[in-house]
Design a protein that fits this description.
By secondary structure, the protein is mainly alpha-helical. β1 and β2 form a beta hairpin. It has a two-stranded antiparallel ribbon with strand order 1-2. The longest helix is centred in the N-terminal third of the chain and has 23 residues. The chain is built from five helices and two strands. α2 packs antiparallel against α3 and α3 packs antiparallel against α5. The chain binds zinc ion.
Length: about 160
């Protein structure tokens, strides 16, 4: 078996290797192109995801520092699911609350709906250093929702 070394980290690689087993650097033109395609597709998906949420605030400049780092925000499936759930719940609550708007109880509902939206959680990371826990946002939502419902029922 012939060997070559990785152009980036100098690991010994099988001559046929398309990617470095140590650092993941592509070793052939084809592999480099494939990786480019993959990164682009991922970026488009991320853009589409945050795009259909509407008004989340533009972020994610595609940093081309050549380090080959794919994404700053690797989301696990669970995280994705959680985000979807938050969007659905948040927007659902806001839409329902808007139909109740002259009533005072609709306002806490709107606030709760906004609080649980994932972009809001990201905003909290600015002054606090790290984002508030998901549980905190869910708790906020619960408090506002209960308050809103209580006001709607009582008034
Ligand atoms: Zn390498």
């Amino acid at each position: 078996m012939r060997m070559k070394t990785c152009s980036r980290c100098d690991s010994s690689l099988d001559d046929e290797a398309r990617y470095c087993v140590e650092c993941g650097a592509p070793q052939t033109e084809d592999a480099a192109e494939e990786l480019d395609d993959y990164v682009q597709r991922q970026a488009q998906q991320v853009a589409a995801d945050s795009g259909d949420a509407g008004g989340g605030g533009g972020h994610a400049g595609s940093g081309g520092d050549g380090s080959g780092y794919v994404s700053t925000e690797e989301l696990t499936d669970r995280e994705q699911l959680w985000r979807r759930g938050c969007y659905v719940l948040g927007y659902g609550t806001i839409v329902v609350a808007l139909t109740l708007v002259p009533q005072i109880g609709s306002f806490p509902l709107i606030l709760g709906g906004i609080a649980i939206l994932p972009p809001i959680r990201r905003l909290t990371s600015e002054p606090l250093g790290s984002p508030l826990k998901r549980e905190v946002m869910a708790g906020l939502y619960a408090v506002f929702a209960l308050l809103g419902v209580a006001l709607l029922v009582l008034l």
